[in-house]
Amino acid sequence: MVHIRISDLEEYARVFHVPIMLKDGIEFLLEYIKNNNIKNILEIGTAIGYSSIRMAQVNNDIKVTTIERDSNMYNEAIKNIKAFNLDNRINVIYSDALDVELNDKYDLIFIDAAKSQYIKFFEKFKHNLNDNGVIITDNLSFHGLVKDSTNCSRNTKQLVKKIQNYIDFLKNNEEFDTEFISIGDGISITRKKSSFI
To answer: What is the pairing mode between strands 129-137 and 63-68?
Structure first.
């Protein structure tokens, strides 16, 4: 059994520039899972498995399905999840999320992957949400650049524009209500409107 701690994952992410949730963001997410009796989670974007491990640790009843398309990240996640002895509760799918077809329903869908695809991820997986479930999205402030991207490269500005489009998409959605929370790197919590349940 490999001895590994959460702090080891955080250090690995820092050294190798792997984007993981900011500390207050992940704490908020874990608290939300605990307080809302979340049991079945779908995560879009596994990276090294950090957030899926943290979410699964909240409660022994929690099951996580997580999707990762990068082979290096996928292999690192598999190794870390095994080291935490959570491979029976975290299922990692190696694929592009947009190619994955799932029939299960989830209490929580957590979107933390390619920001340029957020709207597509939302539209694709909203059908997998339980009636009273939530879709939580991370990185909506994108290190503060969504407020001010003046000094950014063209590529970054395009990415910021896509995040702004996603925020507008959530604000104007007929089917869902969204609450925006200025914690971590900017989080949204989206629920189905009661008229659509």
So the answer is: unpaired
